[in-house]
Each structure stands twice: as structure tokens, then as C-alpha cells.
Amino acid sequence: SVSNIVPESCLLIVVGLLVGGLIKGVGEKPPILNSDVFFLFLLPPIILDAGYFLPLRQFTENLGTILIFAVVGTLWNAFFLGGLMYAVCQLGGPGLNHIGLLANLLFGSIISAVDPVAVLAVFEEIHINELLHILVFGESLLNDAVTVVLYHLFEEFATFEQVTIIDIILGFLSFFVVSLGGVFVGVIYGLIAAFTSRFTSHIRVIEPLFVFLYSYMAYLSAELFHLSGIMALIASGVVMRPYVEANISHKSHTTIKYFLKMWSSVSETLIFIFLGVSTVAGHHYWNWTFVISTLLFCLIARVLGVLVLTWFINKFRIVKLTPKDQFIIAYGGLRGAIAFSLCYLLDYKHFGMRDMFLTAIITVIFFTVFVQGMTIRPLVDLLAVKKKQETKRSINEEIHTQFLDHLLTGIEDICGHYGHHHWKDKLNRFNKKYVKKCLIAGERSKEPQLIAFYHKMEMKQAIELVESGGIGKIPSAVSTVSIQNINPKTLPVERILPALSKDKEEEIRKILRNNLQKTRQRLRSYNRHTLVADPYEEAWNQMLLRRQKARQLEQKMNNYLTVPAHKLDSPTMSRARIGSDPLAYEPKADSENLPIITIDPASPQSPESVDLMNEEPKGCGGLPPSPEEDEEGLVMRVKEPSSPGTDDVFTPGTGDSPSNQRMLRCLSDPGPRPEPEEGEPFIPKGQ
Fold this sequence. Notes:
Elements: H1 8-25, H2 35-52, H3 56-61, H4 63-91, H5 101-112, H6 116-126, H7 130-157, H8 165-197, H9 207-224, H10 229-247, H11 250-281, H12 288-313, H13 323-331, H14 337-344, H15 354-383, H16 395-415, H17 420-439, H18 449-467, H19 480-486, H20 502-521, H21 537-560, H22 571-580, H23 616-619, H24 627-632, H25 658-668
Helix pairs in contact: 1-11, 2-10, 2-11, 4-5, 4-7, 4-12, 5-7, 6-7, 7-8, 7-10, 8-9, 8-10, 9-10, 9-11, 12-13, 12-15, 14-15, 18-19, 21-25
């Protein structure tokens, strides 16, 4: 119940204090945390565990933010703290006047770096969300290069009689050599470890040994040349993991995982216990002004650095860092055993104030670990900061993640913007085409990423079933591949595809060709959310409707049109038709006063005896009559069929439309002659 309130690191320091007090109480000299023991044996397991199981996706997506916090933030803290402490020493009285600017800058570089061991110990207990965890933890890992450079730089400058501009420029360039050199050493050893694991299929027992051996060699090689050993370890773990896990057996993978976790946990425990013991056993020189000023300026520098850098970073980030996130990042800047060990390495000859530096550093470590480490969990709950979701990743999430990666890469290519998705895609293609073939044995090098992820999930599910004792009641959802992989049998014979005959192959090609051709000719599908009105679509529809009606009308005409079309009838015949079917014609609006001739069909006078003088021009020729003629005679106008809309694509002339031509043909052809016995001289209506 105590560990729910107090972090484990605090409890371990308390245990160390008690053990140191007991050892001192019985008259023995307590052991002190030796810097060589710390840097060579206790620190590498913790960093290797963090680098090997680093969440690579979150780390790479936030790499720019992490680098700004790690490099610019650490430089700001070191110089801000060193400069202010130099001012305090000049104003602090006779006990501090002898401390020069280089000594204060060295002290600032030691105390300014965030400690990865303390951050891991505290942040893994409060289960903060992935973004904040990777920002603070990534900063604590990558600021090692800045700390190493500044530490060795000021340590060397302290021995110089005069520091020149060339020395400062060389010191600035050494930062790139230390950081990039450490990464290069780690990548080389990671590739060697991956290549070696390709040939260990017959000696599975020593597979985990290669991972630890090459990682430790990367760390030692980097430290040998004063490069960043922490960055070398991280680079080697990140590079070797995907290839090593594809080559080694599952038992070896389990061994690596649990041995690294156990090794890092033991190292972390020993570090915090030794911190407590060394506090009791070490030589201390307490100066209230120096210690309180150090603690106060550490907090001020951290808060100011986070606020200013976050204001600058948010201008370029899509997911902005909120004020709550900034508070957690500033509050999570814990100091730990790395600062203590670096200060313990100082030489009394050049730094006579080492005991006072150690006292101030231990005070800052205790304050950050106890006060900030104990209060960060209630503050996270109080501010309602998003917690880490303890859910396993599903294949559905993997599919959508890959889909979004491809989509964003395509969008970047279309826009001509070479962002990190573009370079990530390039790197993945190069890795798949060249690197995997060299570093992964067998068919696993050609396996798609989704299939590999599926096999990994299947393996985890099968192991959980075996560990829970449910091997006898395996659900149908679990494939037998997972169970077979637990106890691998002899390698199956490579499956040979049956050879197809030429006829069968041609038939398959024909089927595919026909179906693909049909697929290409398929009409576009529309969505009601994306449907855009086509300006030509309505006109085409109207034209198709008119053509269809014209065909129907032509079919009807063919039923009774048995003779060729004659010229237009005389006006007398037209009058007769008006009288027989007055609904087919209508007079003009301005011709209400014109006389209407009504023909009685029963009249003995035949239509041929009507006087035809001055009436023929009014109804023949299709010419528009003049106003004078409108006043003198009868005006006829044929009703045109109403159309559903206007035709913007095909608009014929007034007298050229098919309906007008067919109507004129109807009027000019009376159809078959009536039989003599019928006695009807006119065409019946509706025929």
C-alpha cells in the first residue's frame, strides 16, 4: 500500500539510507557508488532495455520535438544555471568567491540533464499517455550526448591557461562527432548482430548471448573514444530488433525479453540503494546559499525552457502541446544517479569544491525524486491528464495504420512535399528490397508486414493459452499454426505449385481479360454526398426521351401510312379537316374575329365545289403569312407535342423537327380511301 503513494525509487533510496546508517553505526565504512561501476555495469542494462523495446513509431513521429528539448533545452539549462550560479558565487561571500566561471558551467552541465533512470522509475508507475512519456523519456535518452560533450569540454577547458575561439568552435563541432559517432557505432554493431542471428538456427541456446554481447560491445566501443555510449546502445537495440526477432526462435525471444527486464530492474534497484548509502558515507560540504540557489534555479530554468521551446514547437506541430502537457513535461524533469556519478568523477586537483557540488547534486536528486516523484501522480489525476490505454493492438488497427501511412505518403507525393511519410516509405522500400534479404534467413524476408504481425499475434495468443492451462479447450478462432510454433517440428517440405497446361492457362487469362474489360467499362458509381450536377446530363436525357418518342410515333405511323406522302392539301381540304376535328387546330390569339367555316358532313355540297380563289397561299408552302393576309383569311396552326424539357445539345430548326415533319405527312396523306359503302368522306377522329 505504501508503493501506491511513494514511488519505488524513493523507497529504495530510503532503504539505502537505512543500510548506510547501519553500516556506519557498527563502525564500518559504507561503500560509495563508484563511477566506473555505475557507467560500466549498472547503466548499460537499463539503457539497452529502453532502446531494445523503444516504441519506435511514437519516437520517430516526435523526433523533432524530442531533439529540441534534448539539445536546445539541455544547453539552455546548462548555461542559464551556470551563469546564474557564477553570479551567486561572486555575490555570496568569501566561501564562494574562488569558484570560477568554468567550474560553474561544468556544474550546470552536470545538473541540467534529465536522468533516464529516474524518469523510467516514476513515469512507468503513473501510466502517463504515450506522447508525454516518449517526450520526457526520449529527452532523457538523447540529452546524454549534450551532457557528455559539455562535461568533457569544460573539464578540458579547466586545465587550459587560456581558452581561444578555435577551442570553442572545436567544442561545438565535437557535439556532432559525439552524437553522430555514437549512433554510427550502434548501427554497425546492430547490423552485425542481425547478420549473425541469421546463422544460429542450429544453435538456438546462444542466440540471446549475441544480442547482449554486441550491444555491450557497442557501448564499450563508444565510451572508448569518448562518444555517447547511451546513443550507441539505443541505436544498436533499435536496429537489431526487427531482424533478430525474425531469425531467432520464440524461446530465445522470451529469454531476451525477461532477462533484459530483470537485469534493468536489478541495476535500477542497486543504483537507488547506492545513492542512499553514498549519501551517508560521502564527504559533504553544506553551503546554504549555494544549495538553495541551485535548487531554485534548476526549477526556474526547467520551467522557462519548456515554456519557450513549446511555444516555438507548437508553431510546427499538428497535435499541439497543451498547458497541461507542458506542466507535466516541466514537472517530470527528474535528476538521478548519472549526475551524481559524473560529479564523483571530478578531480580534486582541478575542482577543490567537489564536495560542495556533490552535496548540492544529492539535494536536487532527493528533491526531484521525493517531492516531484511523489506529487506527480496526484497532479496527473487532478489535471485529468490522459492516461495510457492498456489495450492490445488488433489487426484492424494495423490495417488502418498502414492504410493511412500509404494515403499520407501519396498525398505528400501529389503535393510535392517530401515529409517524414515520404522518407519513411523510401526507407521501408529500401529495407524490404535489399536489407531484409541480407539479414533475415529463409522465407521470412519476403513475408508481408501484415502477415508477420498476424503471426506475432497468433503466437502471443497461443502462449497465453498454454500459460493459462487452456490448451485442451482451444477456441476455433486460434489457428493451429500458433500451437505448432510453440514446439517446432521438422521443417516442412517446400510446397510445389502444380503446373498448369497451356490450355488451362489461356482459359484463365481469357476469363481475367473478359472480366477486367467489363470492369473497366462499368459506369461510374455516385454517392449522394459527392454527386455534382452535370450541365450536359439533363440535355442528353431530353434528347434520348425525344428519340424514344420519335421511334414510337414512327411505329404507329407505319401501321396506316401505305402510300407515299403528297404535297400539302388545298385550303378547302384543310377547312374540311378543321370541321371534322376542330380540337387538332386552334386559332391565333389575335384572330378571334375571323370567320370560322363550319362544314356540315351531311351537306350535299362536296368540298371540291368550294371556291379556291385567294385561299391557297394561306395554307401552303410553309411560309409565314403577312399581317394583311392574317386579316383577310383563316389562320391554321398545328399543335406541337409538349416536350419535358429543352434540348441544349440537339436543337433542330422550327420546321425540321421529326415531329413536325411526321405531322405534316399525316396531314398531307389522308390514308386509305374509304370504301364506297361506308359513305364517310373524312378521316375519323382518333385514328
